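Here is the promised in-class demo. Please do not try to memorize the tokens; focus on the logic of going from shape to residues.
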């Protein structure tokens, strides 16, 4: 079986996993018909839907298309729904820094429990803070649109696309868009090569033969930096960047410090009077126009439009994946469950395995300047190891291995041991000012993710590859604690910002989930040392024995020991109910009382403010807690509940509305959604589904997170349990 969405350098590392993850049947009967299962959920449209553009990609590069199969109406899609962009995880731009800003210029001093004072770059509103947040930032590679030269010379409008029949063929990984323009039929096929950042396009129409229909390439200066999330393109200041047609099939791009090449399989010509814009046409009289558009950091030979290799790749991907067929179920949620499983697998595979770990909006649009939020890495990619694609998790975790020197430097600046992971970072792991440097629950993630890879392939090679990552992440975990001699306990913070991002950073101490995660991750790191033939770390064992207990009040867990007002104050029931993760994301331990956690779950379901800033990953997270507590009906209902940030479009996107109840901002440039699509929701959904369907260590029943009322009949293949 060929490698999936990986460059050749990772082939030797990933091949051992192929045999490990060959699908097996967990139910009796014939194997699941993978093609039928996947194909019945291929999104299909017969009208324009601004919420449901369709994406093709290879994990680190993605192209999102509108109803025409290209990017013909970018302003309308950005304004009314989900944008259509071309993004890659290698394309970053950095403005000049004449003032020489450094992180220290955004520092604010915080006092630690031992009385020492350390500066943290939390001032995001200063000139230094703004520059450091914006730089580096992801850069949109270009726009590929249908170019219809109408006889009346008016602009091409969405209302002129008629007789729409568009479908994303999930099994083959390509979009087929049929429609008519002025009564003439058009068929556009769109795909992305799995092995390079190349968009494949085929247009068939009499309008092509007449020379009035072709393809237009246009290159913006970047994103509009006046819009915080989901910004549109910036077409101003055309003199600030260069798009040079150096020969008929190559455009060289220069934007600030970024240089890249657009390599074409057919000649292009500049559009007179329109900078940064080029046109491609078929030969005279030909009704078919094929074009391969490759984006790369170097000049490459033109690529043929090989759609069959794309189809073979995706068939291999789906055959290697875990699968669940709900077709025998009578519960009305079953069809929704199955569809979400298929679409979320596809959307994560095309967007979440690049050279740099993903942004929260994946490769659909820009949020937080495209930077990676390391506290989201678990939600983004843990599921890959559970669904039969550990090589995609490995590609993300290898970036962490490569960034260990930078993480060690961050730890040293904080007076910590080991390697401390920045929260919001570009490709170089440099921190971004704001509350980010005080968030801590990102720190154990590499330990957990390395364990998932070891469970997928328990070999010395995995221990060797990720041993230092586990060891040094754990050293920082341990050194972030301090010993509270008055209570004979190790404590965490202040300063810190807990996963529920609402409490005072300067005074927060002993958050519940973080304490549970600290203890479990140090136990796991000890296990890794033993596997590697190393002695246990005495300090870590002492921490495990004497770590502060999980904070609780009146029989329920609270978010934070220093501010135990979770159930007394509605304002403290916004954002993530993070105390639930101690049993759900994490397995059962003697550190967590099941009865207390059950009462806490009841209180969240009854009393949480579900309308105010609860995110797309919260629903699956809560479902995981319900599943581990033996409450399958609650688990499924919460996982699939309709909520403000848990609604999915027909194409599978999960938009996030603004984080308040205020009316939508309709000023120029402001998009309909705060975050037009939210990939942690998809990854969290797939991890929760893996727990519900595949179970966890020590749970021997089949599909333990599904109700046993006879309405769920499920055939599964390829599952790996969680810890």
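The designed amino acids, position by position:
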């Amino acid at each position: 079986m060929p490698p999936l969405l990986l460059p050749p350098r990772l082939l030797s590392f990933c091949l051992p996993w192929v045999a490990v993850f060959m699908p097996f049947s967990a139910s009796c009967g014939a194997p699941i018909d993978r093609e039928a299962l996947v194909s019945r959920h291929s999104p299909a449209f017969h009208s324009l839907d601004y919420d449901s553009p369709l994406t093709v990609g290879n994990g680190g590069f993605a192209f999102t298309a509108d109803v025409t199969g290209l990017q013909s109406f970018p302003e309308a899609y950005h304004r009314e729904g989900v944008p259509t962009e071309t993004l890659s995880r290698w394309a970053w731009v950095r403005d000049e820094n004449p003032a020489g800003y450094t992180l220290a210029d955004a520092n604010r001093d915080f006092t630690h429990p031992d009385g020492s004072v350390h500066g943290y770059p939390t001032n995001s509103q200063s000139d230094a803070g703004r520059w450091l947040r914006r730089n580096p930032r992801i850069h949109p590679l270009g726009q590929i649109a249908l170019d219809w030269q109408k006889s009346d010379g008016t602009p091409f409008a969405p209302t002129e696309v008629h007789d729409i029949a568009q479908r994303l063929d999930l099994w083959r990984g390509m979009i087929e868009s049929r429609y008519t323009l002025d009564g003439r039929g058009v068929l556009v096929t769109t795909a992305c090569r799995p092995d390079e950042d190349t968009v494949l396009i085929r247009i068939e129409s009499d309008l092509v033969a007449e020379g009035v229909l072709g393809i237009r390439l246009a290159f913006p200066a970047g994103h509009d930096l006046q819009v915080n999330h989901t910004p549109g393109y910036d077409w101003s200041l055309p003199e600030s960047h260069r798009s040079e047609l150096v020969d008929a099939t190559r455009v060289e791009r220069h934007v600030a410090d970024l240089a890249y090449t657009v390599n074409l399989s057919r000649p292009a010509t500049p559009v007179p009077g329109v900078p940064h814009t080029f046109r491609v046409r078929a030969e005279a009289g030909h009704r078919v126009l094929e074009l391969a558009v490759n984006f790369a950091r170097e000049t490459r030979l033109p690529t043929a439009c090989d759609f069959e290799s794309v189809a073979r790749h995706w068939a291999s991907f789906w055959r290697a994946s875990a699968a669940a067929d709900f077709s025998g179920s009578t519960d009305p949620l079953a069809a929704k469950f199955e569809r979400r499983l298929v679409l979320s697998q596809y959307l994560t595979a095309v967007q979440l395995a690049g050279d740099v770990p993903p942004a929260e909006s994946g490769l659909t649009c820009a949020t937080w300047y495209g930077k990676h939020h390391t506290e989201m890495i678990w939600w983004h990619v843990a599921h890959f190891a559970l669904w039969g694609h550990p090589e995609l998790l490995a590609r993300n975790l290898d970036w962490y291995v490569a960034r260990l020197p930078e993480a060690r430097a961050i730890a040293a600046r904080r007076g910590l041991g080991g390697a401390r992971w920045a929260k919001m970072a570009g490709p170089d792991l440099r921190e971004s000012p704001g509350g980010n440097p005080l968030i801590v629950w990102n720190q154990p993630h590499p330990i957990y993710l390395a364990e998932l890879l070891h469970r997928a392939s328990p070999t010395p090679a995995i221990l060797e590859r990720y041993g230092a990552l586990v060891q040094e992440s754990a050293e920082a975990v341990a050194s972030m604690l301090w010993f509270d001699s008055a209570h004979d306990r190790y404590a965490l913070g202040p300063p810190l910002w807990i996963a529920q991002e609402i409490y005072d950073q300067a005074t927060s101490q002993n958050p519940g989930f973080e304490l549970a995660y600290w203890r479990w991750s140090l136990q796991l790191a000890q296990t890794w040392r033993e596997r590697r033939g190393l002695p246990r770390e005495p300090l870590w064992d002492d921490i495990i024995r004497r770590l502060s207990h999980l904070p609780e009040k009146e029989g329920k867990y609270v978010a934070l020991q220093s501010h135990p007002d979770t159930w007394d104050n509605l304002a403290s029931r916004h954002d993530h109910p993070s105390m639930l993760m101690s049993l759900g994301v994490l397995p059962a331990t003697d550190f967590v009382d099941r009865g207390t956690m059950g009462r806490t779950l009841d209180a969240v379901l009854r009393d949480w403010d579900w309308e105010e800033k609860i995110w797309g990953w919260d629903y699956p997270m809560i479902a995981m807690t319900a599943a581990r507590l033996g409450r399958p009906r609650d688990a499924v209902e919460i996982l699939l509940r309709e909520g403000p940030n848990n609604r999915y479009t027909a194409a599978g996107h999960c938009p996030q509305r603004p984080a308040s109840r205020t009316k939508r901002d309709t000023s120029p440039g402001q998009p309909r959604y705060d975050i037009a699509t939210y990939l942690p929701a998809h990854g969290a959904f797939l991890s929760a589904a893996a727990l519900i369907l595949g179970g966890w260590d020590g749970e021997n029943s089949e599909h333990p997170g599904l109700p046993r009322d006879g309405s769920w009949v499920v055939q599964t293949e390829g599952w790996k349990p969680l810890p």
